[in-house]
Structures are given as structure tokens and as C-alpha cells.
Amino acid sequence: MSSLRSASSSRSAPRVSASTTFSDYAVTTATRLLGSAGVDADQGTRALRTMLSPWGARRIGTRPGWHSDVCADGSPIEFSAAFSREGLQVRALVEALPDRLNSSSAQKAALSLTRGLTQEFGAAGDRLAEVSDLFLPAENPTGFAMMHAATLTPNGGPEFKVYLNPNANAGMTGVERTRAALDRLGFAKAWTAVTEYAGRGFDLDRIVYFGLDLIDGPSSRVKVYFRHYDASPAELDARMEITLQHESGLLGAFCRQLTGSDTEVRAQPLVSNLTFTTAGGHQPVSATLYVPLWLHSASDRTVRDRVSSVMRGMGLPVGRYRSLLHHMARRPLASGRGIHTYASARVQRGRPRLTTYWSPELYDRYPPARYQRG
Description:
By secondary structure, the chain is of the alpha+beta class. It has helices spanning about 5, 20-35, 40-50, 105-120, 125-135, 175-185, 190-195, 235-240, 250-260, 300-315, 320-330, and strands at about 75-85, 85-95, 145-150, 160-165, 205-215, 220-230, 270-275, 285-290, 340-350, 350-360. A ten-stranded antiparallel barrel has the order 1-2-3-4-5-6-7-8-9-10, surrounded by eight helices.
């Protein structure tokens, strides 16, 4: 059911229709979220406008022309918020919509967006340039090209990162492409940790994204993302002990509280990442579990209550989460289950951190399962 046709507008968020442009929706929503979070809305929306140029001027329509990898319903925009005792971050993730419905055109749109971030904000693209030919192949590209994210905080300017497609064409496997990229970026020895982490094999622990921070310095991150089929949170928790900062024992309860199950999450596979930095060397400095939410409850109201309970247990600010969700939702939470897409958590040096990811539901408030094994 399309949320554009049938979702009633809540008092918390403006009405969105098929004739609304992506930019109008995104900037209006970001302004509300950033204002609630105490982040400079002018600076944040300036970054978002750059990320949405020029494709954001298009109308949303009633169905996605290009079914984006950003959200389960094909929406090309996602907002999220990261909560910790140290502070709050608001994030925006977008996939630049191509002029034509093919991966070559998607590459052009993604590169244009990257140039805009480099010119307007000084985003560092040297690492991306080192691996661009791997992830943006000229011959027979397939799937998405690149997704861009901005992190916005009360202090400091926006920081950007990109997510690349390891399965960009049939010329290399996702495993081969990821290993080659790590090698070029100076992380050849990190491959040992990647293969150890994917201990069941890359069919069950499938590499799905390659992430790069667009900043310079020894703390700039390289991330390898996995989609885990028929894996339990407890199993992943044990594997994450290969990282430098992992504190075990959280993930089983975290997943059980959010989904109602602490065994295999079969309706929608779990996702995780390993994070590498120059400062950390060949060992991953951290690992994060992402729990899919939209198929594990009857409604977003149930998810809200589960997330709230988890945050209370972690000593995190439940009120701030609920306030941001109020500004995100355009309908009663009980009348759909597509707003909450994922939640992630980790504890480092005794400090918990939880992130919730939200879809705008531009096309569906009951999105189907994605990324089934095949």
C-alpha cells in the first residue's frame, strides 16, 4: 500500500504527496530533525541540498523509478540518529537518482554528487580515487553505484562517507573486489581478519558494501559490510571478539528485545561490519551489528516501545529518540511498519552507542523482505 495515497499526515510532520520533490521532503524533514537535535539546521540542510543536486528537483511520484538500495521500499533517502552518553548525531543517507534506469547512468550521478561534496565542503576523495575503477567499472556495470552519507553534529561541520558496491559487475566477485580494494588502500593484511570473520564462507557471510570515510587522517575508516544468512546474534557476538574494542555479551539480548527472537533471524538477514583504520593496523578496530526491524513487528509503535526499552537499559536518552521519531513520522505509528528499518548497537570501553535508521516511506508503509538468499 502506498503511503503517498493512504497514509494520514500526523501533526508532527508535513504532508508529502506524489508531486512533492525529493528536496522539499528531505530539507523540510532534516530541518525538523536537526532543530530537535540541537544541530545547526542551516549547515545541515546546505549539505543535504548539495547531496540532492540536481536530482532532488524531481517529483517523488507514486512508485520508485529507480528502486534504491537505501530503503526497503525503494526510497532513495534515509535518516538516522546515533545516541550515546557523549552526544547525538543525525545522519542522512542518499543514493543519487540516475537520469536513465541503468547502472552506467547511476555511476555518473554518483560521481557528480561526489564532486559537489569535494568542491563545497572539501570532502577528501583520494582513497575513493584509488579504488574507483574497481567499484565503478566501465564495462557492464550492474546494481547500485554508490550511496553517500552525511554525519551532522552540534559541534563541527558535516562529515561524509560513501558506500560502494562489491558486486559492481561480473568481471570480479565481491570477494575479489573487496580484497583488491583493501590491498590498494594499504590494508592487505586485514584480509586475514575478514576471512576469519566470515568463517562459514562468503556465501553465508556475504560481503555486500564497502565503506569509505571522505576525510583524511589515521582515524579515517574503511568498512567491510556483511549480510549474514541463518546466523544467530550470539554467534556474531563471539566472532566480533577479533576486534580491538569489542565488549561481548550485548548482542544476543539486543536482538532478542528488538525482534522477539535470539536465534536465527530468518525473515530478514542480520548485517554487520568490520571497521579498519590506519591507526588500528590490520586488526579491525570495531564491529557493529545491524538488526533489521521492519519484518519483526506488526507496527512501528511496537518497534518504538522495544527501542525505548533497550535504550533505557543502556542508559541512553529515550526522550530524544522519541522526539526525533515524532518529527520523522508522517502517520500514526500503529498504522504501518516501514519507518524503522534497522537498529545497531555496540559498547566500547563501557560506553554504549545505539543508532536507529528511519525510512521516509515514500512508496510503502509495509515494505517486503529484501536480500533473501539466492
